[in-house]
Amino acid sequence: MVDVITMEIIRNALEYIAEEMGIVLRNSAFSPNIKERMDHSCAIFGVKGELLAHAEHIPVHLGAMPLAVREAIKVIDEFEEGDMIVMNDPYSCGTHLPDITIIAPVYHREELVGFVANRAHHSDVGGRVPGSMPGDSVEIFEEGLIIPPVRIVKRGKIDKEILRLILANVRTPRIRMGDIIAQISANRRGVERLLRIIDKYGRETYLEAVDHILSYSERLAKTEISKMREGESYACDYLDDAGQNWDKPIKICVRVRIEKGSITFDFSDSDKQVPGSINAPKTVTISASYFVFKSILRGDIPSNEGTYRPLRIITKRGTIVDATHPVAVAGGNVETSQRIVDVLFLALSKLIPERIPAASQGTMNNIAFGGINPKTGRPFTFYETIGGGFGGRRGKDGVDGVHCNMTNTMNTPIEEIERKYPIRILEYSLRSDSCGAGRWRGGLGIIRKYQALTTIKVSLLGDRHRFRPWGLMGGKAGAPGEYILIRNGREIKLPSKTTIIMNPGDILVIKTPGGGGYGKPKQRDKERILKDLLDGKTSRLYVEKHYELDLSKI
């Protein structure tokens, strides 16, 4: 039987292998979205596709990746050493088409011992708009090239025919090729490192350790759940709309049950799928549920399949949280996943309030640009998400201007944008007064202003313009998001999901939501209120309105 020390060494080694894979991918990638924003994820899997370890990358990727590995195992007749499988079909591997997954089987002396895999968001995979993130699509076929599980590497050699097919369907083939090769390189590093571990400890010891790691994580999770108050709660939250084809609010509901060392998330009452891109495949709902489940567990519990065994997730086919082919899903991954997190936290706040924050911004504020770069005469595509306010928590204010919950990416540096694209950034700042007031206020949103230097096509995909991020325990809601086009000095308010043409000189203003506040505002410490005022995070009007302070006497 493997000893505890060896098990822990192998567990930590697996986690670092995933981290090192991410470093290789980031350093080798061509696009700013992967190299700068780090919109990618890496993980290690067992022989049956069970998640063994992952890096601290993107939550919406990581929960769905085990299903992608299992789909590859089911579809591919027989793996060979040196093979790699590429896929992006949301209905078989989760998320959306720009997220391309590459999976590599790992063989130790001709015996399959597991898989390594990575997923990266590509700035374009074809479709009807640059960036492949339309806010108003109806069918998945509008959103880009669909890749079922196929071998892109055969016995260690890249299949140039498959690669050529992919590159023929995208607007920026050179960038796409660079990012795909970076993904292949990351997997090769993962295979190399995993085989070193197996060589050092032996195959039998490694496989036994893996089983113990999963069982150990399951026991830790169940122990933590047993400390929570048993009970049931119910909550609903809303997406603003599905774009121009469906201008009505969309309801997501969940019933949460905590009982006997297990937790159930039941989304059966959620609205039906809609004619828009915010439908979520069930894999996205699983990812969001995993994120929330892991967030409420205290202590140093590993994140692997064993951890999630006590969680049961129930959905109904054909709903916004379990969409059916061929409805569009580009926004389900980025926007609906955020609302699933919000509604789960809202339901859990009634059962374990001490562990739950107020709502964060609840959107990723997806922006995709494309056109012809006048400096090069070649097509360009650019994609990024923009942070906002994190919700206030018991004992702490929310964090200002960060990517929240289901996204964990970095900021795209202004210098990188202006160096590579015909875009000028006029402002990038925190959004004063956007925080939800409270004993602990929510985080501030962001203002980002883009000026077009040539004619470009822009896709916007966001939310929380109608339904503000809610507060908890008497805290106030955060400010809603707002998108504005300034053309010839005239301001045009834009919906949260749309595609527009920007002419040279046009300015796009993105104002992201603030986080909700926590606790009754009048109980907030005077010193912290004044510090926010002096730092420019809040105004005199905001303070006087929410905190009942007469500033004329201070």
Q: Can you walk me through this structure?
A:
This protein is an alpha+beta fold. It folds into 2 domains: 4-219, no CATH class; 357-554, no CATH class. It is 31% helix and 23% strand. It contains 14 helices and 20 strands. The strands form 4 sheets. It has a 7-stranded antiparallel sheet, sandwiched between helices. The protein has a 5-stranded antiparallel sheet with strand order 14-15-20-17-18, covered by helices on one side. It has a 4-stranded mixed sheet with strand order 8-9-10-11. β17 and β18 form a beta hairpin. The protein is globular. 56% of the residues are buried.
Which terms summarize this structure?
7-stranded antiparallel sheet, single chain, alpha+beta, 554 residues, 14 helices, 2 domains, 5-stranded antiparallel sheet
In a few lines, what is going on in this structure?
The chain contains 14 helices and 20 strands. It is of the alpha+beta class.
